[in-house]
């Protein structure tokens, strides 16, 4: 199957999402992607639009299906990508969407940052976690994958995170404001006192005996 080569180049989470789209498409249209045409593509899109999924999830499924068809066109398996014709339908729906995003005032942020009890190991972690989220604008997935050795200082003395688990898959540097660096430095010292090495997680779940890396859900709850 040609799509196996396409899927092999994706990151694990993306690969699973694309595989779900392949399975759903087969169940809905009784066709494989390699035999797709405009009618079956329209049928799949109609099913997605009628589902209870969020608009963002619907768009992601459409983008995945379109990307796989584009690959099949490039490989000479399909004459055209039927999702190209349907693109305007999705974009029209997207234009009317408005995602309500509440802006948190800086005074409120300061109060939130002061909430953790830094006399406890969990409080030190939470203080550094909140400072990192607010001060560096990292994704929860990026914060959760940080290791002790990812906290660094450049030649000019500017502290930064070396990000290895970015959405783009590229190695990136994220400078830290001084108030973030202070909270993170306390956590790094704490983790090293616990025996953490360069490749050990920076943020761990202290409620587990195994001291595993924090999950995105735990970061969300923090």
Characteristic terms for this protein:
222 residues, mainly alpha, DNA polymerase, domain 1, hpI Integrase, Chain A, 2 domains, three-stranded antiparallel beta sheet, 10 helices, 3 strands, 55% helix, 5% strand
- By DSSP (H or I, 4+ residues per run), the number of helices equals 10
The mean pLDDT is 84
What pattern of helices and strands is seen along the backbone? HHHHHHHHEEEHH
Shape: elongated
The neighbouring-strand order within the major sheet is: 1-2-3
CATH class of the largest domain: Mainly Alpha
Helical amount: 40-55%
Count of the separate structural domains = 2
Largest β-sheet summary? 3 strands, antiparallel
- In CATH terms, the superfamily of the largest domain is Intergrase catalytic core
Strand element count = 3
Q: What CATH architecture of the largest domain do you see? A: Orthogonal Bundle
Description of the structure:
The chain has 222 residues and is mainly alpha-helical. It has 2 domains: 2-95, DNA polymerase, domain 1, CATH 1.10.150; 106-221, Intergrase catalytic core (hpI Integrase, Chain A, Orthogonal Bundle). 55% of the residues lie in helices and 5% in strands. It is built from 10 helices and 3 strands. The chain has helices at residues 2-8, 12-29, 38-49, 55-74, 82-95, 106-113, 121-136, 140-144, 178-193, 216-221; strands at 151-153, 159-163, 172-175. The chain has a 3-stranded antiparallel sheet with strand order 1-2-3, covered by helices on one side. Strand 2 and strand 3 form a beta hairpin. Helix 4 (55-74) runs antiparallel to helix 5 (82-95). The longest helix is centred in the N-terminal third of the chain and has 20 residues, at 55-74. The model is unreliable at 91-99 (pLDDT under 50).
